[in-house]
Protein: Circularly permuted type 2 ATP-grasp protein
Organism: Bosea minatitlanensis
Amino acid sequence: MAVQGRIRSGRTKEERRAALLAGYRALPGTHDELVDAAGAVRPHWEPFLQEWCALSPDELRQRFGLADRHVHDTGVSYRVHGDIDTHDPSAGERAWPLSHVPLLIPGAEWQSIAAGVAQRAQLLARLLDDVYGPGDFVAKGLLPAAVVTGSPDYLRPLHGTPGGGALQLYAADLGRGPDGRWWVLQDRAQAPSGAGYALENRLALTRAFPDMFRSMNIERLAAFFQGFRAGLVARSRRVEPRICLLTPGPLNESYFEQAYLARYLGFLLVEGDDLLMREGRVHVRTIAGLKRADVIWRRIDGDFADPLELNARSALGVAGLVQAVRGGQVHVANGLGSGVVEARALMGFLPALARQVLGEELILPNIATWWCGQPREREAVLARLDEMSVAPAFRSAGGELGRESVLAGELPAAGRAALRARIAARGLDYVGQEVVRLSTMPVFQNGRLEPHPMTLRVFAAATPDGWKVMPGGFCRISEEPDARAVSLRNGVRSSDVWVTADAPVEPITLLPAPDRISIQRVTGTLPSRAADNLFWLGRYLERGEATLRLVRALLGRLIDSDPSPGRGDTVRRLAELLVAWGAAPHDRGRNPAAQAYSALYSLDDYGSAAASVREARRTASVIRERLSVDAWRLFGDLQKQLTPQDGRRPSEGEAYEIADRALKTLAAFSGLSQENMVRGAGWRFLDIGRRLERGIATCRFARQFTENEPSGEALDALLDLTDSQITYRSRYLLGASLQPVLDLVMLDPYNPRSVAFQVERLEAEIRGLPTLAEDGMLETPYRLVLRLAADCRIAEAGRLDRTSILLFEQLLMGLSAAIADRYFLQNSGPEGSRLTGIA
């Protein structure tokens, strides 16, 4: 491959290396990861450069394309805080900014980093145990009381609660100073994010450079996640616990990561509304009743976890959760009060605490920090204010600073004076910190490597065997040449971290040993929220398909050069149905082609194909952990097909082709769900939603095209819309006639597009759903579907009219409401409030 690359590119490996490194120099006063002070490449980077330079420019582009396609196809995304569209959670998502060059760290150096992170996690865990327990550190003068109680993350109701601040997952943000030493910039103990993104970075770059990954003996990440999961299991009282990942929801900045980790680790992704307190325990609302939650890995701030005892304004938590934690009925990771150790005010006390508590010096020192709540430290900060970085001592402290630090010396004179006055008046809200210039690492840009400042987030997990550190991490790279604080917002990239080993690394899997696997044929408990969204996903997709069929039928008749009798009336009926459908605006002056165009592309008309696909993707984004990569790829294809590409209105023929291609994509999704989804409760709700929507649409089609003595052309349109032309022609030699057409599209149980077929499938699916009580009584959804099935079986085509068809439609809509009342979160009927089936 390398020889071919040389021939095609016309450059030798040495020439490529020279071009790649041309002009690469460390920034003044910084440590660079790739080259030393003299500009020589560091030894552990040499194997990487050798492999890289063996690839031609075309091959490199292909490798980068593989990584970028992985990011695109899997939907890896994030949000910037405040960039939210409440109507469409997927609208504010940004593609993950992957850098194609990993950060390389030799195994020997990593051992020191890992030891330092594990030591720090152990120290903070001990600190949390004391803060929410005996309080010896404050009593002995090791910590000022205000450093603890002054923090908004200190949750007083958790004091004296076992595990009130328990630390299960810890992350440290590290930077390397000019002398090459690693420093801790920030501790993350509230709800550390990034572990899932680290895993996705790894998957993307190993797809691009699999040979390089193997030859350089890169440490694997699976063992870390295996240990983390084992640590959570060990915290439960049951052998097979139900572990939930509590997310703030799809509008959160890192929702993709949360959904991804839930699927990867086999946890149940839940929101606050999915959980309920009963009999002192936390339960998950499922379609089979309430099921006990044993462990909750939270990704919401601790004070938002319980509106009853903590933050009454929270809509994200579970009322009574603190009571369940206090009673030892559920383990929350990290403990609800763990955020207290993230306070910058604590950093100045940690070196002395390490000596007192662990009997050790910190392996990884903090950046020097002075808490201004102490008179001497405050005066020192004010005396050197122009040389320091000033930051809030606690979350929500510091007034105009927000959560970020500022370089006091770069503020205008008035701003610097105001900051000085605020520190003098209320010093406990501020810390002064030494300004540390971060190290730089290479980024591939403009055909060569360029140095960019970076920070490294490293994760440690509490496992049954002690603290285990992820051999790698989450690297953030700034686009700016001066980055003394890097956060993930505009202009920041992310990359993988490769820890090299001296020998080949054994592959590790998250699967348990074969003799420890208990065979199961049921996927697991389905939360009511997930059932609700799967149901509506099916309905939105089917609704989009129905609109596309209407558009295709309308445009097909407009472009037909040999119109048949009744064509004008049929076009009118099709256009009227698009308007009644909500797919096109009610405007008598618009021609049918313009209405078809609106029904394809308009996002302002709720029934358009584009709007239905948008709603389907929004719904799918809430259950991202339950959908495959192929499904996300199809959503992307659909949205692209239903978005005008060049700003011009397509011709009638082009619009027809667009509708036809979109229908084929929807057919692919249908095939994917039929052939690839396990026939569990999730699939049932997806199928129920599709069957209901298809049945309702068919009833509307039948009412529109069989009234007022329809022409053969109108009946042909009905057969087109229900995809039944071939079946009809194979049965009847004559043209379309009213009664045979009605029988085929309404009552024929062998036609997969008929109403009777949908009802038959609905009966089978609803029969397979769980019941809340074994009392022999039929629940409302099953009772309604049995009535529908009986009506379909005894109905005769000759007696069907607009009124009887409308009755079928209304019964289907009533069935939809009954399913929602029984199985979804908004249920309020007597069946929804019964608490039988608690497990």
Observations:
- The two ends are 58 Å apart (CA to CA).
- Residues 368-434 form a domain with the Dna Ligase; domain 1 fold (CATH 3.30.1490).
- Residues 1-9, 485-489, 827-839 have pLDDT under 50 and may be disordered.
